[in-house]
Amino acid sequence: MNSIAIWWDKDVNIRSIPKTHLDINIWLPKQEKLNAIEFGLKIENFKSLQAIYLFLPFDCQYSDFDDKTIELSKNAKLTNALFNKNMSISNSDGIFHKVTDPEKNFFHYCNISNDDIEFKDVKDKETKLGTKICIKINNNNDNNVNTIYYRFRINKIENILKTVSENNFIIDGFFKKLNFIEFNINTVRKLPSTIVQNIANGDKFSSMNLFLITDMTTNFSFMSSDLKASRILENPIWNEYNGNNELFNKMVAYHWKKNNEFEDFSLFLKTKYIKRNKSLFILMIIFMLLIGCIGGVGGNFLTTKCFNNFIVEKKVTTNSIEEKSK
């Protein structure tokens, strides 16, 4: 059960059809505690919806949730990098912030307040299968707001990424790592039955951008879908977005795209990378010195034992020869 699910409830009193674009960023720096998954939802005719739902196949709490629209609405450089356009932002005191592109098309960043979000465990009897997040749509009376954009990050990833060691030699597994990434959206066979019932209405996304951002020394040995593009992440801009952490300095963004409507999506990746850090290097030096010490002690013991046996045998032989000569 490792698929993500995203769906929504429609307002039966409103006939307009929602159009939902999905953005996903999977952040995989070398330090696993910084792994995160980020969602962007651009919803046209958003007032026709009552709520957006997200199922994650792992435990998630409000402390893991980070609303990024607050930061994006205050930083035009980040917004420009995110949408690859020269955008202008008109901030307001409320939850909506107007974003306009050079062609005068616009949408509104929408902040997510604590009152608009709810976390609930998904269980099968006593076994916890994941977390369902409900984001209530804030249908205000402002007729100028038609298209909104949610952007939020979950600061953990589980059941999507599996790391194993590559042990061709005794110490190989300390350094060489394999990552298996299986990323699924609304994949029925990989979802709990209760969640499958929720997505059975067949809601479709209009399009999607998926980015996997990982260290530039990572090598892809297999991918189930062809890349659209890749690039080195712009350090000054995205470092600020990630808390100025040095581990995000050398990152590459790999881009997959879907232009047509879709109900589900699957991507399988196999990557290899060399794990390097000072602690591991020191550990390996200690390990090699320990092996050397053990080898030295063992060699001395065997040498001494063999030498002593040789002396004893030679003495016995000499004594025997002397006795026979007498």
Write up what this structure looks like.
With 326 residues, this protein is α+β, with helices and mostly antiparallel strands. The protein has six helices and 18 strands. It has helices at 69-72, 76-83, 172-175, 193-198, 235-241, 278-325, and strands spanning 5-10, 19-28, 36-44, 49-56, 65-67, 88-90, 96-100, 106-110, 117-124, 127-136, 147-154, 161-165, 176-185, 207-215, 219-223, 229-232, 251-258, 265-274. Strands 2, 3, 5, 6, 7, 8, 11, 14, 16 and 17 form a ten-stranded mixed β-sheet that branches. A hairpin with a 5-residue loop joins strand 7 (96-100) and strand 8. The longest helix has 48 residues, at 278-325.
Classification by helices and strands: alpha+beta
What is the succession of H and E elements? EEEEEHHEEEEEEEHEHEEEHEEH
What quaternary form is this?
A: single chain
Q: Report the end-to-end length measured between terminal Cα atoms.
A: 89 Å
Query: Largest beta sheet, briefly?
Result: 10 strands, mixed
Helicity, as a percent range: 10-25%
Low-confidence stretches: none
Using the alpha-carbon principal axes, give the shape.
elongated
Rounded to an integer in angstroms, the radius of gyration calculated over CA atoms is 30 Å
- The total count of strands amounts to 18
Mean of all residue-level pLDDT scores:
84
Number of helices: 6
Estimate the strand proportion.
35-45%
